Amino acid sequence: TDIPEAEYLFLVRRIEELIKEGSEPQEIAVLYRENREAEAVAEVFERHGLPFVIESDQNILADPDIQKLLKLLEAIHDLGNEGRLAEALHIDFLKIPPLDIYKLLEGRVKNNYASLYDLIGKAPLLESLGLEDPASLKQLYDNLSRWKRESKNRSFLDFFSHIVRDSGYIDHLLGNPGYFEKVGKLNTLFDEIKKTVGNRGDYTLADFIQYLAIIREHNVRIRNKAVYLPHVVRLMTAHKAK
Hints:
Helix content is 60%, strand content 5%. The chain is mostly helical and 242 residues long. It is globular, with a radius of gyration of 21 Å. 25% of the residues are buried.
């Protein structure tokens, strides 16, 4: 059964009290029966700024922030695909105001433009829509075009590392109270990519997108590597604690 929000809040307050009384965060553990329960606990901890790390075995591809990064890579790979672009617009670390997205989609239909790319690539058209921040949309258009070109001219490992920094993704992770866990998942993904690339100097973004499609089709899980970290509360299953 679902645990009431009030019980999660009590948990947060009790941990805060323990820390204030002198307990080290890494000496505090929250146990639950199943991995799926970690998400609810983590969400409450994030809202209250309580640093934590999830030590249970998790599929990193199910992590919302990893999924955002993969959506961006798919939009870069499939530049020109309006559906991919529409999904990318909602990625929070790209910082497009939600109301601007609504006005953009409405303006595209109302003015009968062939695609969203017809709009976001032209500053005068964006300004005519009465957007809060039209520059952020034009910047996204420019970035996608530049990233697409870079994906064709860099090794994939170098390109992946560049996107993580240049898109604002790593800053987004570091601004999260659970950044220990988030960065750990990113490192796991990078290690998986390095194993997949191997000695292939010709490995490309297209190869990675194809790899993602295969592991999703076969429901392959990429397990997060548990790492002991100081100064954070530890979340784990009772089985993992043994």
